[in-house]
Amino acid sequence: MTQGDDNNYYLELGYIYFSRRSVTVRAVVGSCVTVCIWDEKNKMGGMNHFVMPWVDKPDNATPHYGNVATAALVRIMEEAGSKREDLCAQIIGGGKPEGAVSENIGRENIRVASEVLERKGITIVSQDIGGHIGRKVAFNSGTGEVAVLKTHKIRQTDWKKGD
Question: Quick check: 162 pLDDT over 50?
Fold first, then answer.
């Protein structure tokens, strides 16, 4: 779900956001991953936010899964007129902050994002991944710029509507 005003959206877990105009898309990640994809030629972009790497059954294919969310974001951008050679990606998250459920889930989330992007021929221009802290992410869909704030403790209230 996205929340916010016309120029500022909070992207919750299991969702994808795309815009043809400049919008700041925000998310908070621990072991989850966000993939930000920007079309340099058309100055538009999108971001996903997923928690699990691979979908186990086709009937469960939702953006909660990295392989689904990343392929879907590429498809959305292509349907909007992007060409893969004009796209670049940034991967953020995949850490193991305090209280993470699994030792390997963050690493697997990073791996699936990288593999899908490589298979689709999308260049990864930057990564802020791994480690033992959470991240607050702000992606500008019009410029492709990403700001990452690192935090030792992720709170339920971080960057929700009204912040």
Answer: no
Number of Cβ atoms within 10 Å of the Cβ of 106: 25
What is the pLDDT confidence band of residue 158, given thresholds at 50, 70 and 90?
Answer: low
| Cα pseudo-dihedral 119, 75, 26, 28, rounded to 10 | -50
Nearest to 46 by CA among 71, 69, 77: 77
The number of angstroms, rounded, from the C-alpha of 30 to the middle of its chain's C-alpha atoms is 12
Interval 106-111 mean pLDDT? 96
Please say whether the beta carbons of 120 and 74 come within 8 A. yes
Separation between Cα atoms, residue 50 and residue 53, nearest integer Å:
8
